[in-house]
Design a protein that fits this description.
It is built from 18 helices and 2 strands. Helix content is 68%, strand content 10%. It is mainly α. Strand 1 and strand 2 form a beta hairpin.
């Protein structure tokens, strides 16, 4: 007769991982069976050994409840070294390593547990979900996909699983499934041109600019007068370093949408990157007029003034940016450079110290 212990806990797991060239930070609220232990009466041939194993599982369960992941590992590891077919110990080790997070070992133990657990049982489903996540956060989206596709079938209300599936499609450059998955998440028709634009925006956010451009062009085929498309293509061109093309797109956007402050900002940015500093001033001024709280436009305009050796104007512009955003690292850094160039070493040193302090406090992901 089987003895089952199930502990359900709501755990918030913070995972940081690279996805392509972009850092992906996800905070997942995963409903975990913190330790799902199924102790079979025929786990071992000898009854005393079953008792020892059951006691080890009990201790591991208690340690898991206390958050002592190293204790769980220490308790269960000898058992899988003795017998790799112990599904409960493999499962528990996989969960413990996942939460450390040590995805390589989590994958090893969860992959071992999966074929040992009854298909469609609660523990098997959890193994599928957590193994999929471990693959995904290890940049193994192709391995994660078949597991995520299974998990979505029984986790229809779990948007984290659905979002991760969409991101896995994105990481494998599967444009149609990426579009369909994001459209479903946002409740829109996947064949609607806006679904293409939505997918393109999320692709751009993750720096999949080639995929994003292809998706926008496909949207234009469906609806040639889509709004903001020139702006989006301009951002993609800017990301690629195609600054002249970017400027052309932003100018096109501004013909029909002259109140678009971001388009003015990025037009100024494109001119700045092209070294056309005189032409960069007007777009940035217009960006500021349309958004008086845009510290980044002030900072970029100050950089333009510095290139023109208009240091006094640049200094005042940066001070305005700092008034709006006192923790703006770039504003403090640029102001320190201006103090240095204008032979005010004490002020430069003080301002650089502020910039360095802000940089050290900036998140690394």
């Amino acid at each position: 007769m089987e003895k089952m212990r199930v502990i359900l806990r709501r755990r918030e797991i913070k995972i940081v991982s690279k996805s392509g060239s972009a850092l992906l930070k996800m905070r997942l609220a995963v409903c975990l069976t913190a330790l799902l232990l199924v102790v079979s009466s025929h786990a071992f041939a000898q009854e005393p050994l079953v008792g020892e194993y059951g006691a080890a599982l009990d201790r591991a369960e208690q340690l898991f409840g206390k958050g002592d992941l190293d204790g769980v590992i220490q308790e269960l590891k000898p058992w899988v070294e003795r017998d790799a077919s112990l599904a409960e110990a493999q499962h528990g080790l996989g969960l413990a390593y996942y939460q450390k997070p040590d995805f390589i070992r989590a994958i090893r133990h969860l992959s071992a547990a999966l074929p040992l657990e009854p298909e469609n049982s609660p523990q098997w489903k959890q193994t599928v979900e957590i193994l999929a996540m471990a693959y995904y956060f290890s940049n193994r989206a192709r391995d994660a996909l078949p597991l995520l596709e299974k998990a979505v079938a029984w986790s229809r209300g779990d948007t984290n699983i659905s979002y991760t599936l969409a991101m896995a499609y994105l990481a494998t450059h599967d444009g149609p499934n990426t579009r369909r998955s994001f459209a479903k998440l946002f409740g829109i028709d996947p064949e609607n041109p806006q679904a293409y634009v939505l997918a393109a925006d999320l692709m751009s956010q993750e720096n999949y600019v080639d995929d994003a451009e292809a998706m926008i062009l496909a949207a234009l085929e469906k609806q040639p007068d889509l709004p903001l498309v020139a702006h989006k293509l301009g951002l993609i061109a800017l990301t690629r370093g195609r600054f002249e093309q970017a400027a052309e797109y932003f100018r096109k956007e501004l013909v029909s949408n002259p109140g678009h402050s971001n388009a003015w900002h990025y037009l100024g940015d494109a001119y700045f990157r092209l070294g056309r500093f005189d032409e960069a001033v007007d777009p940035l001024q217009r960006a500021i007029w349309l958004n008086l709280r845009s510290a980044r436009s002030y900072v970029l305009l100050a950089k333009v003034y510095s290139q023109q050796e208009r240091y006094f104007v640049a200094e005042n512009t940066l001070k305005r940016a700092i008034d709006m955003d006192p923790r703006n690292y770039e504003a403090h850094f640029q102001l320190a450079r201006i103090y240095h160039r204008t032979n005010r070493p004490a002020l430069a040193k003080k301002q650089m110290a502020v910039a360095n302090e802000l940089r050290q406090s900036m998140p690394t992901n």
